[in-house]
Amino acid sequence: MELLRPESAEAASAALGNGSVALAGGTELVPLLRDGIVRAEKLVELRDVVPRGFDGTRIGAGTTLAELEVDPQIPQALREACSLAASPQLRSMSTLGGNLLQATRCWYWRLNFPCYLHGGDVCHAKAGQHREHAIFGSDRCASAHPSDPAAALLALGARLHTTARELPLSELYRLPTDDNRDVTALEPGELILELDVPQPEASVYLKAMERRKWSFALVGVAAARFADGVRLALAGVAPVPWALSSPDALEQATPLPGTAYKVDIARALIRRAVEAVGAPRSA
Ligand SMILES: Cc1cc2nc3c(=O)[nH]c(=O)nc-3n(C[C@H](O)[C@H](O)[C@H](O)COP(=O)(O)OP(=O)(O)OC[C@H]3O[C@@H](n4cnc5c(N)ncnc54)[C@H](O)[C@@H]3O)c2cc1C
Ligand code: SF4
Questions:
Q1: Given 48, 142, 175, 258, which residue has the most CB atoms within 10 angstroms?
Q2: Could you tell me the pTM of the whole model?
Q3: Does the Cβ of 51 fall within 6 Å of ligand 1?
Q4: Which architecture, in CATH terms, is 50-277?
């Protein structure tokens, strides 16, 4: 396999496609290549072309989770989401951009079952093992989005700058459809370069997991308080990070038999998160 080291983001973007895949920290991509789920002839290294670090409210997509979790300039919800992800070693390699684009942890998908998300007709998890799966948005695929930072950034109202455009984080994600099984809306060759992350009055990220460390979210809840209200977003509950218009919107969940317990966890975490951020100052 060839490793390309382009000199600019535009050159990296142009080099993608036709068997070339973007490589950031590699913590997600390398296992997928090893297991034959992603196939590539060339890897396009992003390290020198995607911005790293932060300046005010702007964060480079090449910044690692380890760098984000310790900086007091970063809103608390994002710091906590980063610090509760994976392990210290993985966080020191994992970039924010790669984290937002990580694939589902659904084992049917990871074991290459020909399921709906892989282009087939059936969601094997719905009829089989689905304890860690969705409570929202599972019409076609019942996977649970694994990114903690994505939920925090959704509650914070982050915007992305890519090689092609600027868009709200909420528009990065889409539920898979019969015509398009992707769960992100990036165009081929489009790279995430930077994020604008508004400073809230207060924010928090709470995560329920099987073990205290190194475990994906059963449910993650981000709350961010702004002058006009509190925004909520959830990880681990739908194929994409899930925004909730209010705590009551949780009651519209459509859990599977094996995921009903997640609704109770989400309800408890939402209550705690809303208490933690308090009411808007103008309220
Ligand atoms: C054991 C384990 C436990 C984990 N636990 C958690 C957890 O609890 N919570 C959590 O949130 N995450 C968790 N993760 C996920 C981890 O945070 C991600 O693997 C990591 O953030 C990916 O970043 P990376 O830089 O290594 O991306 P890579 O592996 O290099 O890339 C991932 C994907 O993103 C693409 N990509 C990368 N950067 C860009 C960019 N700038 N623009 C466009 N495409 C890009 C790549 O082409 C690839 O498809 C865990 C991972 C492992 C292996
Ligand atoms: S939940 Fe999604 S990824 Fe898992 S088997 Fe069903 S369709 Fe495939």
A1: 142
A2: 0.97
A3: no
A4: 2-Layer Sandwich (3.30)
Architecture of the domain made up of 1-49: 2-Layer Sandwich (3.30)
Q: From atom 50 of ligand 1, which residue's Cα is the shortest distance away?
A: 86
Which residues, other chains included, contact 79 with Cβ-Cβ below 8 Å and sequence gap of 6+?
68, 69, 70, 71
- Give the span between the Cα atoms of 76 and 53, in whole angstroms: 17
Pick from 90, 147, 191, 192 the residue to mutate for probing ligand 1's pocket: most ligand atoms within 8 Å of its CB. 90
Question: pLDDT of 86-109, one tens digit each?
Answer: 999 999 999 999 999 999 999 999
- 10 Å CB burial of residue 190 (0-12, 13-18, 19+) is middle
Pocket test for ligand 1, best of 20, 30, 94 (most atoms within 8 A of CB): 94
Among the atoms of ligand 1, which is closest to the Cα of residue 190?
43
And the tokens for 235?
Answer: 């990880």
pLDDT of 283 > 50? The answer is no
